[in-house]
Model the fold of this input.
Amino acid sequence: MAILEDLNAALKEAMKSRDELKTSVIRMMKASLKNKEIEKMGTLTDEDILSALSTMAKQRRESIEQFANAGRTELAEKESRELEILQAYLPKQLSPEELDALIKNAISESGAKSAADMGKVMKVLMPNVKGVADGKAVNQRVKELLGP
Done:
């Protein structure tokens, strides 16, 4: 529950400093967490909170990509700033080198030989990277390392 306490403190600070974007993003995060709590019909664990925040970050990444492809740079920049604020409450993301090491370990552990064995690799790998790496990037890198 430390994340919720951090969010409450950050919201107060953002409101005092009149940082409209940060205030808006933190309120959005709190509302999303409240909806998740209502959906669950109980209090959220830290894992539930991180899962919800990861989902929000993923939505921002997808929006940034879509806005950039459509030439809407001002909206892409706004989403980027929102993503930066969101990421402050998520665990540090894995570096490409750390991710590669985990993927190679999962490949050897699962005995995968080709791209057809990707499901085996992902089954071993995903519990280790949940919340600390983007699933889309993990999927892409596994494909690259397994080859055609």
Q: What stands out?
A: Helices lie at 2-16, 20-40, 46-69, 73-87, 96-110, 118-129, 135-146.
